[in-house]
Structures are given as structure tokens and as C-alpha cells.
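Data deposition worksheet. Section B asks for the primary sequence of the deposited chain exactly as it was used as input, without tags or linkers unless they were present during the calculation. Section C holds the resulting structure in C-alpha cell form. Section D is free text for depositor observations; keep each observation to a single sentence. Incomplete worksheets are returned to the depositor.
Section A, Depositor: J.P.
Section B:
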Amino acid sequence: MPLKASLVSKAFNSIPPTKQAGAQIHAPLSATAEISDDTAINPRKLSRDLAAFRTPRVSRSIWEAASTLVPFAALMATMLFAVQAEYYIALALIPLAGMLLLRLFIIQHDCGHGSFFKNNALNKWLGRSIGVLTLTPYDCWRRNHELHHASTGNLDARGHGDVDTLTVREYRAKGRLGRFGYRLYRHPLVLMGLGPAYLFLLQHRLPIGLMKAGWLYWISALATNAVTAAMLVALGFAFGAAETAMVFLPVLLTAASVGVWLFYVQHQFEDAHWDTRENWNYHESAIAGSSYLHLPAVMNWFTGNIAIHHIHHLVSRIPFYRLPAALKAHPELAEYNRVSAKEAVSTMWLALWDEDSRKLISFREAKRLTA
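Section C:
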């Protein structure tokens, strides 16, 4: 079972916060919390210690990109040629291709954090290129993801790259229709089925949330649309429109659904951490509000170690391939907010933040509170 993220919160909340410019509040550096009988964690000190893993290695980054892109392209070509020849058994390769596409998205993600290459221009253009395959406009996604990192765990700044989450009181304050809509939205079939399809096929086609933020985001969305469309049209002429759709769409939706599931478990677990703005602290929320999803080694490869999410949120500039080394250097984090693959399934029914118990709970548990 995961150690309680709230232990960090209690240590911080016991010390009067110091207000900084803007909305962020930071506790003194001496704030610590016990995560075992003989170990204490100071999130800000830990972030400084983990900075040693921030430097990307150019040769390793090139290898990670090539060892993902080349097999992905080969699999897609194999399936397109086979399906055109009516060898539909090739569609059994869709899950594997989908996982490779997900890994490409993780590389795009690291480019967005400026952690894949030292050179910022290389990060941008690799990220934009991969965005054509993932149907994710790089500059739009990058800005929204920055806002997500800057506001994780802040109850007063929800809505940036989050799975919409209501508190128990907010849910009870809604009318019958509002509660029904929220319950429908939080149903696993919607979150993991319709949600990913809507997000990658429709929402990403426009700079949603950034419509008035400048031309960069319109250019990012529309240019990605245009290049993706050109690629698909070319494949349609070469292999047939139906055959191209039969291969590309299932691969994309496989990657999207697994990716959304990962993102869900990384922030939607029983001991997740939320605070109102006046009590919110960036470093505390970064680590306490993110899980460590313990996956088999092969899954860690396909998902780019993003399951080590508590470290990633605390120091987002660490390249994904250095996250295991960072975890090994700080073994106390191997049990912190740890969620097993089995436990991750049960998190799908958590839907409401209970302000009193400071836990995510299910609708059924929320109903018991009123009984």
C-alpha cells in the first residue's frame, strides 16, 4: 500500500506559509515530513538533489528516439502493405504499434519540458514532428502542460490538463442534472474510451484554452492538422483510404487510451493531494499529488518511465531515461505514493475529493457520508 502523501501536507501545514509574489505559497526549507520511521523528506531539498539527473545525454536521446521511431515506422508499413493485400492478421500488430506511438508521445512530452536535448531548437522541432504522428499540436500541448505542472494540486486553479475533479461539497451543491453529467463524465468507459478519442481526434484540432493567447497556438494547431492530413492523404493514395484508416485509427486510439489511463492514475489515486490556494505549495503538491505506478519493466520501456511520476513532477527537466536512476538514488521514494497495477484498476472508481478526510473517494463512499 502507498505511504500517505498527506504526511508531507501535515508537515507543511503546521508551519505558517510565506506568501510570495503571485499565487504561489512556499513553506520554509526546513519543512519535512516522515515517510518511514527513520526517513524524512523535504520536497524543496529533494528537488535540488534530483537536479543532478537533469542533464540529457545526446547520444542516449538519439538512440531512444531512433529505437522507437524506426520500429514504429516499420510496423505501420508492414500493416499497411499486409492489409492492402487482405492479410488482416497483420492487424494483430496494432497493440504493439500503439504502444510505440505512446512512447513517441513520451519523447514529445520530454521535448516540451526541454529535457530531451540540451538544444531548445532541437526539442521544439522534434516535438513538432512527432506531433504530426500523435495528432498533438506541440506548442499548444506544451503550454497547457506547463500550466498543469504549475497548478497541480491547487483546488483554485483546476482545469489545465487535468481530469476534471469535484470536491464532495461541490458535487452536492450541483443540481440533479449537473451531478448526472459529472457521474457520466467520470465513468471509466467515458474517461478511457470516448474521452481519448475526443481529445486526440477533435479537441486537439483547435487551440482549445489558448484561443486568445496568440497566433503561435493557432499556427501550431492548424499546421499540425495540415501536415497530418497531407500524410494521411498520401498514404490513402498509396494504400487506399479504408486501409489507411483501418490501421492508423486503431493505433492512435490504443496509444491515446493507454496514455489517458496513465495520466489518470498519476494524479487520481486515494492519497492524492489537493489544497486551496492559501495552503498550496508547489514543491509539496508536485510530489505528494503524483503517484509512483509500479509497472513491469517492459511496460516502463513502452511508457518511457513516466510512471515514476512523483519524481517527474518535482523535477520535470529530468529526461525520462534517467528517472530510474533518480529513483534508485532515493530509495525512500520507491514506496512513496506507490500504486500497483492491480491497485490502479480500483482507482478508476475514485471521483470526488473529500475535504474532510483529504482523500479521493468514490460516489458510493460519498453517499455513505450523508447516511
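Section D:
The longest strand covers residues 350-354.
The two ends are 28 Å apart (CA to CA).
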